[in-house]
Every structure is written in structure tokens, then in C-alpha cells.
């Protein structure tokens, strides 16, 4: 008997932008660009491979009258084996990627809940960009499913460029939430089994900026090109988009210098217009066509696009380029191949003058239609032109060099033909989606072997099975501190004993937690998450969850950690009674010790993927990367089939943050350390109580009508 062939199931995650299977609105805004096209094309290409049984592309569900109804459909087929899955998270309306950070935990919780309803879990999770990377890390740590990541662009690189442009650190943080993005990218690099890049430049010059830099976990797999859409036109065929340009151009038959990108400052369209405006020879020889997204009213566009388009119009007027430049207001995605073909028919050139280009998919599309290239020397074009030998690299900040390169191609019919032919040949040879998908699957094959799903153990029997909600609290500075509050909370538990789980999630060890609860007259919890999420124990027999212990042992190396930070000033090991198998605890002296961020950087540089916590300003703890109060709480909820929306969690310090984000109902009780949680901003699910300690929990029970 032959064994049944196992077909692979890959989950792609790309959260922001407007993603659908047809008529992609590329260039609509800064979030709907090359990445949205890449992930849709990748999903389709992988679904066509014989070893792949299922591809899901998870993105955010958007219900907004200002965008098409397509984006509110929960499921959209892409191929017989591929679909888009839209997950609700945060506001129903469409918001920029920089405003999504507060809702990513909700996305992760909702996506995991959706996955649990599927016949099987994915073999691999592949996240795209930092926001999806944050979600991918959460899912991977909870389930053990290996994570693959593609950055598309990187926060540290962006930060450097923004600072070089003269923006202040405070403004960058306010506008881009750059610290959250960089932190998420560091976590991705610490946890991803593989990072897929488009170019060698990404590895050598961009990822090298990160603490957890492991080039041996990175692989270059250039994106593919849809050769069924992008191909050269027959010389005499009429292309409808020519009519659109005729209204702008005095001599529309001249060769076309074509730029196609979002109206984004990084795309550096302004330098191209300066190069053209300062070269009478170039103006005489060719028309300039700028296809920069779609617009109805520049005044209603976001600040960045508005500034770029305004500058384009001002420069057009300054250089008096009327009749020689076309800046169409609208184009459809299906017209893009014809725009390239129209430029090629005119014996024109495609130019990408971006300050830096992570890859340059438009270069491949243009080359597949027969256009020679002039492109930035920063980023992906170095690889593309180096492999295809079909154009010239330029310094994007040197408008004179841009003009000279364009003239070199336009003035030499032989060079034009050579670049055109080499581009056509080599794009088909090196950059097809089928070749990309085959190399991708070959690269991730070791990850596609069977991996254990969410650890499972037999449930503890007894009356716990009848409970349909839970209250979890930290102990110190959250539950304890008010005798009146403890009485009220104990009365609540007694009254609801048959339907409410009582759990604690604490940094204390098990014996210490039980002892202090007993001393304060509280009943033994049904579930104890202790030592910062590294232990889960069920009463009444105090049964430890051995499956959880096996799960979090992943990459845990306490000896190496003690060696790395043991001699740092201001860190003193706590007593043996505060240490455990999966927790290393120090006293922390803020006046002498490095900052938490500096210690975390040191650990990352030494390739230690861990979670670190500073509590109450004086206790510094290190636990395995798969362990935290929030991850342990979600494991419990899964084991007991308990919806996170039916769990109320109470906390009062920074160590409680990750169990309070996402779909749980949360209360920050009043205490002197609550400012450590001041960054929590989800008003429907996070309540800041006026009352201290257990009184704050009772206040939240009434607030949520729990």
C-alpha cells in the first residue's frame, strides 16, 4: 500500500493596505504598493505547485464606505488552492499601517481562533513586513509552527534616512511609531527560522543594522514577474492609453521617459523632473511621463502624497515643461502593462530614481515589456541590472548623472536594442514566478516536515469543565493591597464558583504564590500561571502542565544567559528561592545597571532569543522566548475551549502587558506602578480602574458587566 501524499499548507500574512485578487489599487496610497501585488502573486504562484495543497493569505478585514466592498468579504478565492482570508482587528474603517500597532494582538488572537476551526494547522507561517511579523511571532511562539519572514522594507534603514532628511526623533516617532516597528523586526529576526530577501543588498546593508543579525538564516529569492501580463507589444498595435497622454503632450510620438511609482518622497520623482528640466537636450529628445498613483483632489490626499504631487506641479511650472510632461490623474492596474508597452513602442526608457529601492518589481515588469532601464544604484536594481545587463545604474541624488544616463540610452539605437533584448531574455530566464515558487519551496522544505501543533494534554477532570469564563490577576500590586478589596473579591468568587475560573498569573514561584494567597485568606486558584508564565499548574491536585514545559524549553540556554550578563553592573542574582528552571531573576539597580533595552541588545547580539521583564523598577527577569503570562494564558484558554473575550485579566505593572493586549478584557488597577502600562490604548478592552488593587478588579467586573 502506498502512503498518501501530504500536500503542504502555507499561511501568508500581510496586514496593511488594500489587498484583493483583481484590479489591485496600486499607488492609491503609501500602503498599497508593491508588497500587496507581491503577496497576491506569491499566493497564486505557490498554489500552482504540485506539492502545495493550500495557501491562505491573511489580511485585515475593512468595512469602509470610502473603499470598495471587496475588502469586507471574509473569504475571497484566488485559485483552486488559494484564498484571501480577511480578519477583523480594531476599527472597521481603513487606517494607515502606522496606526495598526495597537490592534495587532487582536488580529493575532482572531487569526488563531480562525485557524483552530480549520481541518489542520499550517505547516509554515510566512509574514510580510514588520506588522505581520509581529503577528507571525505570536502565532509561532504559541503553536510551534515555523516562521518565515520577508521584510519588504526595514525600520532601521528608514530611521536613518528620515534623520538624514532633518526630521527630529520625536517627530519620526510620532508619525511612524518607528520604535515599535524596529522592536517588532528585532523579535522577528530572533524567532524566524528563515528570512527571505529579494536582494543581497538587503542582507549586507540593511539587516546588518539589527542586533539579531544572522545571515546564515537569510536567503535571496527574487520575486517573479507575471509573464502572461508583461510582454512586448507588436510594433503596429494601437494602445488605448496613448489617448490619455495626448492631452498633455505637444509631440506625443517622441520617445517616452517613463516613471511609475507611488507619490512617495522616497521614490525621488522630484530629482527626475529636475534632471529633465535642466537638460534642454533631453527635453528636445523625449517626453517625460510620470504615473504616480491615482488622485481626484490632491488636497484630500495624505500629507506625504500631497507634498510630493505639489512639488511635481511646482517644478513643472518652474521649468515650464508644459507640452513635454504628462502626469495623468488616473490609471487602472490592468492598464499598467500597456503603459510599459507604449513606452517601449516609442523607443523610450523606464527610470526608477528612488533614494533606495528594496527590490524594484517595476523594473522587471518594464524589462519584460522590452524597455531599457535607468535605475538607482541603492538596493535591488543593482542585482536586477547586474543579472539582466539591460540598463544603467545612477546616483539618485545626482540629477546630472540621471540625465546623462537617459541620453546615453536614447541617443544610441544599438544600445537601446541591446538593453531591450537582454532584458526580455533574462527576465524570462531568471525572474519568472514559477522559478521563484520552486526555489521557495526547495528552500523551506526542511521546515515543511511535521511540527507538533499547540501542545495538548488530557484535561483535568472535575467541575472545572462547567465554567464558561475566567478571572486572572497578578498577585502583588494587583490583587493584594486592600483588605476591603480582598473581602469583596473573595465574596465574588464564592458566589460565582461554579461558573468562573479563578486564576493567578504571577512572577512568583508556585510555593510562594500559594503561601501568600493563603495568608491573605483567598481560595486556592483553579489555575496558577507562575514564574512569569513558565509554569502552569491546575488545582486541586496541583497538576503541572508538562506539555507546556516541553513547549517553552525551545532554544532555552540559561548557562549562556548567566555568562553573558552575569558581570554587568547593577544586576545581582536574587535568592535561589526566586529562581526556577525557566526563570533567571536579578535585583536591578537603575542607577548602575544598563537599560533594559541595552541588556536586550546584548542578549540578541549573542543570539539568545528570550523575553525580559523589569517589574516595579527593581526586579529583572529573563524567561524563554515562548514563555510569558500572555502566551500561557492563551494556552490555557485553548486547552479549555474558553474564548478570550470571556477572560478578565487584571494587572498593575509592565510584566502584565502582554496578557492584557488582544481579545482579553483587561483592567489596570490603581497602584504606584500603573504608569508602566500607560501605553495600552484599546478603550473597548482595556479599563483603567479608579480603585486600587482588588477593589479595581471589582470595579472592572461591574464596568464589563462580567
TrEMBL record:
Belongs to the glycosyltransferase 1 family. The keyword Glycosyltransferase applies. Residues 470-705 form the Sucrose phosphatase-like domain. It comes from the Bacteria. The keyword Transferase applies. This is sucrose-phosphate synthase. InterPro entries: Glyco_trans_1, Glyco_trans_4-like_N, HAD-like_sf, HAD_sf, SPP-like_dom, SPS, Sucrose_P_synth_Pase-like_dom, SucroseP_synth_GlycoTrfase_dom. CDD domains: GT4_sucrose_synthase (cd03800). It is an enzyme of class 2 (transferase). GO terms for molecular function: sucrose-phosphate synthase activity. Pfam families: Glyco_transf_4, Glycos_transf_1, S6PP. Residues 251-424 form the Glycosyl transferase family domain. Keywords: Glycosyltransferase, Transferase. Transmembrane segments: none annotated. Its EC number is 2.4.1.14. It catalyses: beta-D-fructose 6-phosphate + UDP-alpha-D-glucose = sucrose 6(F)-phosphate + UDP + H(+). Residues 33-229 form the Glycosyltransferase subfamily 4-like N-terminal domain.
Amino acid at each position: 500500500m502506498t502512503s498518501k501524499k501530504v500536500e503542504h499548507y502555507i499561511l501568508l500574512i500581510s496586514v496593511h493596505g488594500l489587498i484583493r485578487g483583481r484590479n489591485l489599487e496600486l499607488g492609491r496610497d503609501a500602503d498599497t504598493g508593491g508588497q500587496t501585488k507581491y503577496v497576491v502573486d506569491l499566493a497564486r504562484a505557490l498554489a500552482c505547485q504540485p506539492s502545495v495543497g493550500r495557501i491562505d493569505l491573511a489580511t485585515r478585514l475593512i468595512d469602509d464606505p470610502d473603499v470598495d466592498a471587496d475588502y469586507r468579504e471574509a473569504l475571497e478565492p484566488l485559485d483552486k488552492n488559494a484564498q484571501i482570508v480577511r480578519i477583523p482587528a480594531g476599527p472597521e474603517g481603513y487606517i494607515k499601517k502606522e496606526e495598526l500597532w495597537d490592534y495587532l494582538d487582536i488580529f493575532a488572537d482572531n487569526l488563531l481562533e480562525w485557524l483552530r476551526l480549520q481541518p489542520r494547522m499550517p505547516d509554515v507561517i510566512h509574514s510580510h513586513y514588520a506588522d505581520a511579523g509581529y503577528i507571525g511571532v505570536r502565532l509561532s511562539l504559541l503553536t510551534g509552527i515555523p516562521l518565515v519572514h520577508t521584510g519588504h522594507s526595514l525600520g532601521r534603514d528608514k530611521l536613518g534616512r528620515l534623520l538624514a532628511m532633518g526630521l527630529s526623533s520625536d517627530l519620526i516617532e510620532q508619525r511612524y511609531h518607528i520604535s515599535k516597528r524596529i522592536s517588532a523586526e528585532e523579535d522577528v529576526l530572533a524567532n524566524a527560522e528563515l528570512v527571505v530577501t529579494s536582494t543581497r543588498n538587503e542582507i549586507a546593508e540593511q539587516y546588518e543594522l539589527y542586533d539579531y543579525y544572522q545571515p546564515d538564516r537569510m536567503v535571496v529569492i527574487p520575486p517573479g514577474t507575471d509573464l502572461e501580463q508583461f510582454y512586448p507589444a507588436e510594433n503596429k498595435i494601437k494602445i488605448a492609453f496613448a489617448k490619455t497622454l495626448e492631452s498633455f503632450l505637444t509631440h506625443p510620438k517622441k520617445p517616452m521617459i517613463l516613471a511609475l511609482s507611488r507619490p512617495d518622497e522616497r521614490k525621488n520623482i522630484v530629482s527626475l523632473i529636475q534632471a529633465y528640466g535642466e537638460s534642454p537636450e533631453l527635453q528636445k529628445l523625449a517626453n517625460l511621463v510620470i504615473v504616480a498613483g491615482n488622485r481626484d483632489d490632491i488636497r484630500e490626499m495624505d500629507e506625504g502624497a500631497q507634498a510630493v504631487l505639489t512639488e511635481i506641479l511646482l517644478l513643472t511650472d518652474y521649468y515650464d515643461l508644459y507640452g513635454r510632461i504628462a502626469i495623468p490623474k488616473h490609471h487602472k492596474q490592468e492598464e499598467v502593462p500597456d503603459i510599459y508597452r507604449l513606452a517601449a513602442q516609442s523607443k523610450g526608457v523606464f527610470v526608477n530614481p528612488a533614494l533606495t529601492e528594496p527590490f524594484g518589481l517595476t523594473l522587471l515588469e518594464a524589462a519584460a515589456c522590452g524597455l531599457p532601464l535607468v535605475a538607482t544604484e541603492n538596493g535591488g536594481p543593482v542585482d536586477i541590472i547586474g543579472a539582466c545587463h539591460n540598463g544603467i545604474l545612477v546616483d539618485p541624488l545626482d540629477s546630472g548623472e540621471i540625465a546623462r544616463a537617459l541620453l546615453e540610452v536614447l541617443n544610441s539605437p544599438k544600445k537601446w536594442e541591446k538593453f531591450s533584448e537582454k532584458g526580455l531574455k533574462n527576465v524570462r530566464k531568471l525572474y519568472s514566478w514559477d522559478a521563484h515558487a520552486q526555489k521557495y519551496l526547495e528552500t523551506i522544505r526542511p521546515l515543511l516536515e511535521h511540527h507538533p501543533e499547540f501542545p495538548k494534554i488530557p484535561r483535568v477532570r472535575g467541575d472545572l469543565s462547567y465554567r464558561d469564563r475566567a478571572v486572572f490577576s497578578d498577585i502583588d500590586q494587583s490583587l493584594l493591597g486592600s483588605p476591603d478589596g480582598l473581602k469583596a473579591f473573595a465574596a465574588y468568587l464564592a458566589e460565582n464558583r461554579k461558573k468562573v475560573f479563578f486564576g493567578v498569573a504571577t512572577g512568583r514561584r508556585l510555593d510562594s504564590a500559594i503561601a501568600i494567597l493563603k495568608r491573605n485568606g483567598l481560595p486556592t486558584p483553579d489555575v496558577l500561571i507562575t514564574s512569569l508564565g513558565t509554569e502552569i499548574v491546575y488545582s486541586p491536585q496541583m497538576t503541572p502542565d508538562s506539555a507546556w514545559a516541553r513547549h517553552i524549553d525551545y532554544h532555552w540556554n540559561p548557562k549562556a544567559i548567566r555568562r553573558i550578563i552575569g558581570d554587568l553592573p547593577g544586576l545581582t542574582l536574587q535568592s535561589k528561592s526566586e529562581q526556577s528552571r525557566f526563570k533567571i531573576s536579578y535585583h536591578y539597580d537603575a542607577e548602575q545597571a544598563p537599560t533594559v533595552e541595552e541588556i536586550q541588545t546584548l542578549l540578541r547580539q549573542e543570539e539568545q532569543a528570550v523575553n525580559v521583564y523589569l517589574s516595579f523598577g527593581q526586579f529583572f527577569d529573563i524567561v524563554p522566548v515562548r514563555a510569558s503570562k500572555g502566551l500561557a494564558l492563551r494556552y490555557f484558554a485553548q486547552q479549555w475551549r474558553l474564548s478570550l473575550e470571556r477572560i478578565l485579566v487584571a494587572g498593575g505593572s509592565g510584566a502584565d502587558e502582554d496578557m492584557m493586549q488582544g481579545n482579553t478584557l483587561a483592567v489596570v488597577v490603581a497602584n504606584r506602578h500603573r504608569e508602566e502600562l500607560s501605553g495600552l490604548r484599546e478603550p473597548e478592552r482595556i479599563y483603567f480602574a479608579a480603585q486600587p488593587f482588588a477593589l479595581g478588579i471589582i470595579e472592572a467586573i461591574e464596568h464589563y458587566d462580567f
